[in-house]
Amino acid sequence: MKPARVDYMRPRSLEAALQLLTTHGPDAAILGGGQSLIPMLNLRVAAPSILVDINAIAGMNEIVNGVSGLQIGAVARHNDVLRSPLVADCAPLLAQALKHVAHEAIRNRGTLGGSLALADPAAELPACMVCLEANIVIVSSRGERVVEASDFFQGIYETALEPDELILRVEIPASNREWRCHFDERARRHGDFAMAGLALMMKLEGGAIVGCKIVYAGLEAFPRRLVNIEDALLGIKLGDDERIDAVIECLGASLDILDGGEYPVQYRLRLAGHLLRNGIGAVGRSVMT
Question: Which CATH number among 2.10.109.10, 3.10.20.30, 3.40.630.10, 3.30.43.10 corresponds to the domain 7-53?
Fold first, then answer.
């Protein structure tokens, strides 16, 4: 199939883009990398009346260290984020996760902001942003507003974005160097959507877990921290497999796993436990090296 007829505008300023969104509202679609939008147009799952291409707007692809921490523009390409020395230094969780995103050609075009705005439950970057406690800076003709990542994702393909708004950048607070991170996922083939993915950050003292952030991808309708599981892990020493396994057994009561599809809930729950167990071990090994 081919898309229905649609108007196309390529504004060269943020103000012009925002004016188009104000004028057209829900009938407009933002075009960044287009890796999800174009197939949706071809299948006529999406049928906007106008495409607003934001690729010519200066500064929206920058990756910089700002006063509030690491700042990544919405139009930053996945591969640029993956290969950025600043990201590797300040937010290595993102670099780990982006290795799992699709394939090289898609990462060359796909954008950070596009992934967050789409809010696919199986996507890696939304889970990472919640785990990193990032702030998502949103802009419209009415001005800017900042939404915490934990509040931005609200359901399957649902976000806090209003029809006249777009993502300007994300801000990732500077993290204590004592925090270690780990990202992993399980997919049928590399590049496929994940059956389950895990963004994990841990802080250790004396071989014991004293801080923990756990966010899954691909299991629930939207990414969120599993605070009760995090709290249950506090104080447990690495290598205490019995206590760690006891906490992992509680995942079934903590996760609201999406039903349906080709992967049964119990199978994906087992994957969730496997990822967490392996992740804790991987963080422990990273501390010892």
Answer: 3.30.43.10
Torsion angle in degrees (nearest 10) through CA of 183, 69, 121, 165: -160
Domain 63-172 of CATH type 1.50.10.10: no
Rounded CA gap, 102 and 190, in Å? 7
Of the candidates 96, 95, 98, 71, the residue with the CA atom closest to the CA atom of residue 84: 95
Query: What is the widest separation between alpha-carbon atoms in the chain?
Result: 63
Summarised one tens digit per residue, pLDDT across range 57-71 is: 999 999 999 887 999
Taking the domain 179-288, which CATH number applies?
A: 3.30.390.50
Give the chain's length. Answer: 289
Separation of alpha carbons 247 and 283, rounded Å: 17
Q: What are phi and psi of 199, to 5 degrees?
A: -105, 120
Q: What is the pTM of this model?
A: 0.96
Whether residue 175 is predicted with pLDDT greater than 80 in this model: the reply is no
Of 171, 186, 79, 40, the C-alpha closest to 122 is 186
Three-state DSSP class for residue 197: strand
Percent of the chain with pLDDT over 90: 89
